[in-house]
Amino acid sequence: MVLKYDLLAALFSVCAVFARSVSVPDSKSNPDSDSDSLSGPSLASRAYMIKGTKMTDLTGILWPGDVVWCLDSSDNKEHELILDMAEKSWKMWRDVIGDESVLEFAPVHDKKPECSKYRGKIDMLEIKLNNEKKILSYNGYVKGDNRLDFDLSATYGARTPLVNFAHELGHVFGLLHTHQQRRAWPSLLNLNCQNLGDYDRLKERGVDVDKICEDLDQQAAEANKFWAEHILPDSNVQNDVIEDDKFDWDSIMLYDSYAFAKPGTVALVKADGSHIPVNVKPSKGDGEAIRTLYPGEESSDYDSD
Ligand SMILES: [Zn+2]
Q1: Matching InterPro entries, A to Z (predicted)?
Q2: How far is the CA of 12 from the centre of ligand 1 (A)?
Q3: Cα 301 to ligand 1 centroid, rounded to whole Å
């Protein structure tokens, strides 16, 4: 596979980040979602996601209602493109989520969901296009600041914009990177540090990149803006429920081996050195994760009569 380095550079920002200065909205979600109880024994072994109503340094919370989206643009062509992409990627998610979930993803208007017309009236996911290969979203719901920055031309590996969009939707709904679960390291995953696209540049600058990888020190990677920050296990999220034999290798939230790698090389690999292929659609496990975060009416209702 031949990869273009300039396109890989897009990956620099293909990752969900979280601003620390947001306020926590009132909880309307189900009362037991504020803890590890979200992680049932079967699901927890496969998915990696937010903790429901609990804000962390890295994540927002569950969406309190439908994920209503708008496009921050008045351009008709852009609206057509995003309406099409949103519909197709939501269908991919629906296919694995099934009917037993309250989660809905819908435009604020059928034909031209323009943000400016609804801003301040409806709490929306604001999609904004750019030409800087910037693809960025939050993990979960962040009141008053839900946005998805997207570049329609950004592709990498064998992925397409549609796959990128579906991956970002996973973040928006509350899923984290499957490979960033701490307990997957080092038993399941390994990083070929020297193959990362910015390894040489940072090393020349005196950053001890080898030690960062060796220590799985995601915080140090982040501090040095080293791309390893998107691959190494999260330093500020605890997740101790994975079982080695149930890791979801099919997850759309799992990076393939070519992500962030120098052209012609692989970065993130399985512990035995084998490559991780590109997952082009949400997996069954991804669907199960969403059902757990957003269970259907029947499973979340409490009968008060
Ligand atoms: Zn991501």
Answers
A1: MetalloPept_cat_dom_sf
A2: 10
A3: 32
Least-confidence region, from 29-43, 126-140, 177-191:
29-43
**Spacing, Cα 15 to ligand 1 middle (Å):** 4
The domain ranges of the chain are: 5-178+284-297, 182-270
Say how far apart CA 285 and CA 46 lie, in whole Å: 6
Sheet hosting strand 125-129, strand order edge to edge: 105-107, 67-71, 125-129, 147-150, 136-137
> 5-178+284-297 — its CATH code?
3.40.390
What gap in Å lies between CA 219 and CA 229, rounded to an integer?
7
Residue 24: strand, helix, or coil: coil
**Span 100-129, pLDDT tens digits:** 999 999 999 988 999 999 999 999 999 999
Predicted confidence at residue 187, as pLDDT, reads 87
Point out which residues pair with 190 in neighbouring strands: 269
- Distance (Å, whole) CA 25 – CA 4: 42
Q: At residue 303, does pLDDT exceed 60?
A: no
Three-state DSSP state, 199: helix
Query: Is the previous residue joined to 186 through a cis bond, with omega within 30 degrees of 0?
Result: yes
302 CA → ligand 1 middle, Å: 34
Written as six digits, the tokens of 262 are: 């120098």
Local structure of 137: helix, strand or coil: strand
